[in-house]
């Protein structure tokens, strides 16, 4: 199972995915739930740009030969590439043909090396571990001290990136959301990492990590992972159907699967072209990543202690993470001045016309009111928090008066809100 064949390809994500489908308890069901959620979320928020999320990153440098102990500069060069590529700020976006300029997406994800380690101590966000292993495989040995690597930091708080020697021609691999926390993150060949130091052409543009972090945020390969066939799907509507991967530096247009006249979007980060031939995500891919950060990776968005200043909803406080779910108003439990809500996925005593509310980490909420057939009708607005994170201001897009609420208590089962005057 752990042996690499020549056909393993440059990205090991799908072989790892298939291994987890076979071996990881609950992974199949969790993946199905995540895809259901992603589909609903992408439909719901189609026209709504999510707020920028900044993800704390730890880079684990695992080295056998001195040269593999890559420099801080090389690590920093990779973070710089991620912040350009996931914010549509990379200079080579001009390589996108005119016909697709309108579907280039800003994923609105930023990355910063962690400044606090899991014990609360200051950190550079870089760990260094010497190993006896000459080259790692896609079997996740690099992710555990017991097998020659280094343990992951908590996956709900950090994006773990391991930079090391990989064998078998693999440039990197990722674990999709929904897998075991102990192995969550991405692994990248040190010589395909960053833009300086050991980074070697044609993979010295930092795009292997961009590609793998795309998988980590639930993106599929653009050709749909069905070999060279035309039936595979990347679950993204604005990428053309495509046969198999493209390599090197193709010339546009390159056709497959009757996708002329424009052909394959081989300049997409989720293809296999050279680093200097790939340059974009699409709007549809950005929506899938936003759904990932609103769902299975919401803890990374909610725990964002240092968001970009211009993207804060207001104030500088984050509400408790437990707020972010769907709530049903249980009127019979209200006390004077306090509304009591219970989480919507647990059974409640029957009652007609229950209203509810659903909060999302991206600064939106859905006000759920009873509809004509007792199905709640949603209205989406925006929330902002200030004070200690427990004063919420709700604004509605149609000019309806804003509401102010104080979070009296919230945990994963019960939410108590006190409406405030003014
Ligand atoms: Zn891949």
TrEMBL record:
Matching Gene3D superfamilies: Collagenase (Catalytic Domain)
Alphabetical list of InterPro entries matching this protein: MetalloPept_cat_dom_sf, Peptidase_M43
Any GO molecular function: metallopeptidase activity
Residue stretches making up the Peptidase M43 pregnancy-associated plasma-A domain: 151-293
Keyword Metal-binding: yes
Key words, A-Z: Disulfide bond, Hydrolase, Metal-binding, Metalloprotease, Protease, Signal, Zinc
Entry keyword Cytoplasm: no
One family name in Pfam for this protein: Peptidase_M43
Similarity comment: family membership: Belongs to the peptidase M43B family.
Listed name of the protein: Zinc metalloprotease
Gene source species: Micromonospora sonneratiae
The organism's taxonomic lineage, starting at the top: Bacteria, Bacillati, Actinomycetota, Actinomycetes, Micromonosporales
